[in-house]
Amino acid sequence: MVVASFLTEYLRVNWVKGCEWFHYTLVDADSAINSMMWQNAGRSGIDQWNFVMSPVAASQDGKGDYTRKWVTELSKLPKKVLHKPWEAPEQVMVTAGVILGDTYPRRIVEDLKSE
User: Fold this and answer.
1) Residue/partner pairs of 78-85 with CB below 8 Å, 24 or more apart
2) CA–CA distance from 37 to each of 22, 30, 114 (Å)?
3) What are phi and psi of 100, to 5 degrees?
4) In this predicted model, what pLDDT tens digit does every residue of 32-75 receive, in sequence order?
5) Which of 43, 44, 73, 91 would you call most buried, defined as having the most Cβ atoms within 10 angstroms of its Cβ?
6) E strand or H helix that includes residue 16
7) What is the chain's mean pLDDT, rounded?
8) How far is 99 from 80, CA to CA, in rounded Å?
9) DSSP 3-state of 100
10) Residue 100: beta bridge partners?
11) C-alpha dihedral, 47 to 19 to 111 to 114, nearest 10°
């Protein structure tokens, strides 16, 4: 639900659009659960969340295993900057083969705290 939180809170995407897209693309989509979780993320469900999951806090991927497996562009980065590659020193980026804007996209929200 990190994606739902990011899309609804930081990018202001209507939860219905996120729900529809994920339902269409998920292999194991469950209409009831998917809709309920997106409603909660969009603060219009019966169990509204009173928090926002930070995409850089790594609370859902503490060791970085998930990110290394599914975001292979970042797999060679050290854990300290794995979830926030823009904070990595230039030499670390070069060693890991990460070029922001080329091998990995640039950030679309620069300052999460101000959002």
Assistant:
1) 82/58, 83/55, 83/56, 83/57, 83/58, 84/56
2) 11, 11, 25
3) -60, 135
4) 888 888 888 888 867 666 666 666 776 778 899 999 999 999 99
5) 73
6) helix 15-25
7) 86
8) 17
9) strand
10) 104
11) -40
**How much is the pLDDT for 60?**
78
Whether 115 has a pLDDT exceeding 70, the answer reads: no
Amino acid at 16: V
For residue 58, the one-letter residue type is A
What number of other Cβ atoms are within 10 A of residue 61's Cβ? Answer: 18
Tokens at 35, concatenated: 């809709």
DSSP label of 110? S
Q: Kindly state the average pLDDT of the residues 79-102.
A: 95
Look at the block and give the residue holding tokens 């997106």.
Answer: 38
